[in-house]
Amino acid sequence: MSETTHGASYASAGVDIEAGDRAVELMKEWVKKTQRPEVLGGLGGFAGLFDASALKKYERPLLASATDGVGTKVDIARRLGVYDTIGHDLVAMVMDDIVVCGAEPLFMTDYICVGKVHPERVAAIVKGIAEGCVLAGCALVGGETAEHPGLLGPDDFDVAGAGTGVVEYENLLGPDRIRSGDAVIAMASSGLHSNGYSLVRHVLLDRAGMALDQQVDELGRTLGEELLEPTKIYSLDCLSLTSTTRVHAYSHITGGGLAANLARVIPDGLHATVDRSTWAPGAIFDLVGKAGSVERLELEKTLNMGVGMMAIVPQESVDVALATLADRGVESWVAGEITDRGDHTTGAELTGSYAK
């Protein structure tokens, strides 16, 4: 019988409700692993519930919120058919923005948009998000999976998320705390993280014609494995740092690059100088630059160049900060300092040449 004879249905329009239900069942076990004591109810309600009475221990609690996605990195996951790591990227992009002000991540929600619901694929994406939430110390309290046939191809998808954290007012980090003479500590990235993939894809895949399954000697693995390396989640590392020593501010190095993101936390009248010679960016950054003849300044305003998070601390806190991060397995080093130029200029700049 034709559709005209029977009448149209949601299924005939391309939306499979049963597949969506199956996806929810598959993801429940992963969401459960993220639960905190403050979370009420389970997956499947219309809203996630978080017991706000937990905030009574604060004198003046400030709620911090952020939302983000992972950009065109999802295209790499789609091409490789690997879906259980992209969630780490999503959590990192959201929760590492929240921790910058000193806030403890509390909970997160996600939004997954697909052209066609493949239950196992959606569950794999949620698995990655749940694993990321565990690494960030937050709960995954809910989300939405939307099927958009006709707008997205059957294998196309995108992800976004929103998170909430809390910080005591008197412990709020940011520009007001920064002083001339403070040290800038860099924390190594795990690679490209989740920014600049439009440039990376254009240069390596389109212009250079490289294949994702191509073994690249200087990377020590395939190009696809390098490009899909999950974004490092620094949330608990930063919270540990603020609990063991004085921290004045953090800067999450995302879109716009190192200098632009660091400048966002520098107060009027002060200047941050970062010395490139204190580290050597990973091979992937050199590969992108050479393959696309991309100028250094263009690379630096697009990619993180090997630094995923920066902490600004007083000089007397440097040794403890570096030791704390080392104990947590985070590669870190003093990369620069805060100065008062006396000319009321504000911002951040990179000087020197990268180490080899």
Describe the structure.
With 356 residues, the chain is α+β, with helices and mostly antiparallel strands. The chain is 33% helix and 24% strand. The chain is built from 12 helices and 14 strands. Strands 10-12-7-13-11-14 form a 6-stranded mixed β-sheet. It has a 4-stranded mixed β-sheet with strand order 3-6-4-5, covered by helices on one side. Strand 8 and strand 9 form a beta hairpin. Helix 4 packs parallel to helix 5 and helix 8 (235-244) crosses helix 12 (318-327). The protein starts with a helix and ends in a 5-residue tail after the last strand. The relative contact order is 0.15. The model has no long low-confidence stretch (mean pLDDT 90).
Keywords:
6-stranded mixed sheet, Phosphoribosylformylglycinamidine cyclo-ligase, 4-stranded mixed sheet, EC 6.3.3.1, about 350 residues, alpha+beta, globular, 14 strands, about 35% helix
Q: Assess the beta-strand content as a share of residues.
A: 15-25%
Distance between the first and last residues' Cα: 69 Å
Low-confidence stretches: none
Order of helices and strands: HHEEEHHEHEEEHEEHHEHEHHEHEE
For the largest beta sheet, what order do the strands appear in spatially?
10-12-7-13-11-14
The helix-and-strand class reads alpha+beta
Q: Report the mean per-residue pLDDT as an integer.
A: 90
The number of helical segments is 12
Shape by Cα distribution = globular
How many individual β-strands?
14
Helix content: 25-40%
- How much is the radius of gyration in Å? 22 Å
User: In this structure, how is the largest beta sheet organized?
Assistant: 6 strands, mixed
Organism: Streptomyces citrinus
Enzyme class: ligase
Keywords: Ligase
Protein name: Phosphoribosylformylglycinamidine cyclo-ligase
